[in-house]
Amino acid sequence: MSNEQKVAVITGGSQGIGAGLVEGYRQRGYRVVATSRSIKQGADADVVAIAGDIADRGTAQRVIDEAVSRFGRVDTLVNNAGIFIAKPFTDYTAEDYAGMIGTNLTGFFHITQLAIAQMLKQGKGHVVNITTPFVNQAIAGIPAALANITKGGLTSVVKELAVEYAEKNIRVNAVAPGFVRTPLHSAEALEYLKAFNPMKQIGEVSDIVDAVLYLESAGFATGEVLYVDGGQNAGR
Ligand SMILES: NC(=O)c1ccc[n+]([C@@H]2O[C@H](COP(=O)([O-])OP(=O)(O)OC[C@H]3O[C@@H](n4cnc5c(N)ncnc54)[C@H](OP(=O)(O)O)[C@@H]3O)[C@@H](O)[C@H]2O)c1
Predict the structure, then answer these.
(1) Distances (CA, A) of 62 to 19, 23, 53, 58
(2) Domain 7-234 has what CATH class?
(3) Pairwise CA distance, residues 50 & 200, whole Å
(4) Cα(194) to centroid of ligand 1, in Å?
(5) pLDDT of 2 over the 70 cut
């Protein structure tokens, strides 16, 4: 199989923003390796689905190994897999903590290490983290400390990795979505949440996909966090 076509690895690719990203990168002509716990192989031979928990290094290893053995390369990694548990800080359980650290942070760590190691061999690459404006703007009434702790790490590491790998031609960016219509939120929750940004709107998956693909095209942009949030990060 020819390995000239670019390859994107999308975590959390089974639904919501991740499924939109799989489609968006395919439309750009990329081959895709998509992963999540429940993901199933579809009809498109240029989208390989690998099922597994992103917190396990074994999943990350299988994903990157498949990308390289099937398609020959890894051009882009989008760290999109994530969970969100909002509750008062003192109500969080040890399971909540382990789940959010595991998926949001440990999941990022394993696959990003392996993807960057491959990008270094290729001499080029792009990593995009999906984070949240909560990191900068807490919202009274939506207690989300574990989102801050975990996504805060994903936002913070963007500049570090961007600088660390700049001379290796590996760019590292992030997109911070506001409240977006995905299976993460019930219809009632979305109705409530739209009050929390100045535009008083809910974002669509396509808004986030467009932002990630913009960063993909923006070859001189690195260390950037792009807020796509109806002004949530700007203020209220
Ligand atoms: N929607 C929003 O309002 C919003 C706002 C800000 C940030 N975000 C971020 O955007 C990203 C995507 O969110 P979404 O709204 O599209 O959520 P979603 O519809 O719930 O999708 C989450 C994806 O992550 C996967 N996933 C969850 N836990 C996993 C694990 N342990 N291992 C592997 N995959 C796992 C899920 O698949 P499986 O269940 O099959 O594993 C699914 O594909 C997340 O990082 C989220 O924090 C979303």
Answers:
(1) 20, 22, 11, 6
(2) alpha beta
(3) 37
(4) 19
(5) no
